[in-house]
Amino acid sequence: MNTAQPISGAVAQPGPTTGGGAQPGQPGQPPQKPRRRVLTSLGFQIFIFFGGWWDVAYYILNILVFVYKGLQLPYPGRNFAMEFSFSWLWILIEAPRLFLASKGNKTERVGPIAFSCVLAMPLLALYVYFVGFQTYVLRIDQLLNGVAIAFMALQIVFAILTMVRFILATRFT
Hints:
InterPro entries: Uncharacterised_TM-17. The chain is mostly helical.
C-alpha cells in the first residue's frame, strides 16, 4: 500500500506543513546561507593528474635507459650507483609533491600547494642534472627530462595562480 496517498483515493492537496516543509524565505524557515563559490582549479588538477601519469612513464623509461647505459656504456662504478640512486630520490620527492598539490587544490588551502612548490626546486635540480651533468646524456634523456620540466613548469604556474585565487578569496570575504 502506498502511504503517500490517502486511503480514500483522493489526491492530497499541498498545504502548509509543520515539519519544516516551508519554502526558504517564508516565515518559520531559517534563512539559508548563500552558496560559497568553489575555488579549486580544474586546470591545475588536470595537470596534476596527467603529470602523475607522465611520472609513471618517465620513471619506467628512465630506469630502462639506466639499465641500457649500465650494460652498453663503460660507466665508472660510483657514478652509475649515484645516478641510479638519484632516480629513487626523484620518486621519493615527486610522489609527495603531487599529493600535496592535489590535496591543497581540493581543500582550497594554500599551505600544501606552497610546500609542493618548494619540493619542486630539488626536482628541478635533478632534472637539470639528468639533462646536463650525467656521465652519459642520451637524446632520450634530453627528451624525457625536457617534457618533465615542461610539465613541472605548467604545474608551478597553475599552482601560483591557484594560490593567488585562494588568498584573494579569503582576504576579501
